[in-house]
Design goal:
The chain is of the alpha+beta class. It is built from 16 helices and four strands. Helices cover 64% and strands 8% of the residues. Strands 1-4-3-2 form a four-stranded mixed beta sheet.
C-alpha cells in the first residue's frame, strides 16, 4: 500500500471520527440549551402571572366589595394558557358581587365559548347578558354562533344515538359460575351439531335474524372470542374508516362492510355504519346496524348485572363505555382492576343520572385476558 493511500484512509477515518464528534457535541449542546429555553419560557410565564396577581390585589384593595376587580382578573387569567381554568371562579365571584351586570355575563359567556368550549353554559350566560343589555351587538353575535354550534352538535348526537334501555339484566336466575366456564363453553360453540354453534349463530346474526335470544347472543359472543380475527385492542381499521368518512362516506361504508366480515359484533363498528347510513337518509340500512348493536348488548345483559357477584361480560374494554351509555349512565375516568366471581374484572365508577350517585360497575374481562395470553 502506498503512503498516499494509507494517508487517504487515515484521513477518511479522521473525517468520520470528526463528524461523529461534532454530532455528539451538537446533541450535548442541544440537551444543555433545550431545558434552558423551556425554563426561560416558564420563568416568563411565572412573571406574567405574578404581575397579574399583584395588580389584582391592588385593584381589590382600592375597590373592596366591587365586582370589577374580579371581572378584570378573570379576563386577564383567561388569556394566560396556564391559568385560564382559574378564571371561572373569579367570574363567579364577580357575579356574586353584581348579579345584574350585563358585562359580566357577556365576558363569562365569551370565556365559556372560546376557552372552555362549554357551549350550553355559554348559552345560559349570554342569554342572561342579552336580557340585561338587549342592544349589545357582541352578545347577539356570540349567542347566534353558540346556538349554531349547539344545533350542529344536537344533529350530530341524534345521528350517532343508539338509544338506551331500562333493563339491567336479562338472566336474573342464571347460574353465573356455569355460564362463565369458558373452557367448556368454547367447546360447545365449536361443535357442529350444537344449537349454539358459532357459525350457525353468526349466519343468523348477519342475516339480521331478530329472533336471536339473549342467550344465543351471549353464546355468539363466546364463540367470537375463539376466532383468530378477534383482537381486543386493535381499532386501527375503524379509525382508518373514520378518516375516510370525513371526505367520502361511500368509501367508508365499503370499508366498514369489509370489516364486518372479520369483526361482526363490535358495537363501535356497527355504530359508525349506522351513522353513515343515517347521514345518507338510508333508514333501512341504519336500522339494521342499530339492531345489531342492541342485540350485542342483549348478550351482555344476559351475562350478568354489573355487580361484583355477576359482572357483565366484556370482549373489548373500549366497548364497556358504549354499554354504560346504553344503560343510560355516565362513565367517569376512575377505573381499576380486581377479582370478581373468581375472575379478572375491570371496575368502572359510573354516575347514575336518577340519583346522581357514583357507583361501581363490574366487567368480566376473562375473554380478553384469555385471548391476550393465547388460551
Amino acid at each position: 500500500m502506498s503512503d498516499r493511500q494509507a494517508t487517504g484512509r487515515r484521513g477518511s477515518k479522521n473525517n468520520t471520527g470528526m463528524k461523529r464528534f461534532l454530532l455528539v457535541m451538537l446533541l450535548i449542546l442541544f440537551a444543555i440549551h433545550a431545558p434552558a429555553k423551556e425554563d426561560k419560557t416558564a420563568q416568563k410565564n411565572k412573571k406574567i402571572v405574578e404581575r397579574e396577581e399583584r395588580r389584582f390585589e391592588k385593584d381589590l384593595s382600592r375597590n373592596p366589595g366591587n365586582a370589577e376587580p374580579y371581572l378584570n382578573h378573570a379576563n386577564n387569567l383567561a388569556v394566560i394558557n396556564s391559568e385560564y381554568s382559574r378564571a371561572a371562579g373569579f367570574y363567579d365571584l364577580a357575579l356574586r358581587h353584581d348579579s345584574l351586570n350585563a358585562t359580566i355575563y357577556k365576558e363569562y359567556g365569551k370565556y365559556l365559548f372560546d376557552k372552555v368550549r362549554s357551549y350550553y353554559l355559554a348559552k345560559t350566560m349570554l342569554e342572561k347578558g342579552l336580557a340585561l343589555a338587549p342592544a349589545d351587538g357582541e352578545v347577539k353575535k356570540y349567542l347566534d354562533t353558540t346556538n349554531q354550534v349547539l344545533a350542529l352538535q344536537g344533529a350530530e348526537s341524534r345521528l350517532r344515538d343508539f338509544g338506551t334501555t331500562t333493563v339491567k339484566e336479562l338472566n336474573p336466575g342464571g347460574d353465573y359460575v356455569a355460564i362463565t366456564k369458558f373452557d367448556s363453553l368454547k367447546i360447545v360453540v365449536n361443535e357442529t351439531a350444537s344449537q349454539f354453534n358459532y357459525q350457525k349463530l353468526l349466519s343468523r346474526y348477519l342475516a339480521d335474524d331478530k329472533m336471536l335470544t339473549p342467550q344465543e347472543m351471549y353464546m355468539l359472543i363466546v364463540g367470537y372470542s375463539t376466532q383468530k380475527t378477534y383482537n381486543p385492542f386493535n381499532y386501527n381499521d375503524i379509525l382508518e374508516m373514520n378518516m375516510m368518512a370525513n371526505h367520502d362516506v361511500e368509501s367508508a361504508i365499503a370499508k366498514g362492510n369489509e370489516l364486518i366480515k372479520t369483526n361482526p359484533l363490535n358495537p363501535t363498528l356497527n355504530k359508525e355504519l349506522m351513522y353513515y347510513y343515517r347521514k345518507k337518509d338510508d333508514t333501512v340500512q341504519a336500522d339494521k346496524y342499530l339492531n345489531r348493536i342492541r342485540q350485542f348488548f342483549n348478550g351482555v345483559l344476559y351475562s350478568g348485572n354489573g355487580s361484583c357477584n355477576k359482572p357483565y361480560i366484556s370482549l373489548w374494554a373500549k366497548e364497556e363505555y358504549n354499554f354504560i351509555t346504553y344503560l343510560g349512565n355516565k362513565a367517569t375516568e376512575n377505573h381499576s382492576m380486581g377479582m370478581c366471581a373468581g375472575q379478572m374484572a375491570e371496575i368502572i365508577d359510573v354516575i347514575y343520572p336518577a340519583t346522581q350517585k357514583t357507583e361501581s360497575m363490574h366487567f368480566n374481562v376473562a375473554l380478553i385476558y384469555m385471548q391476550t395470553v393465547g388460551k
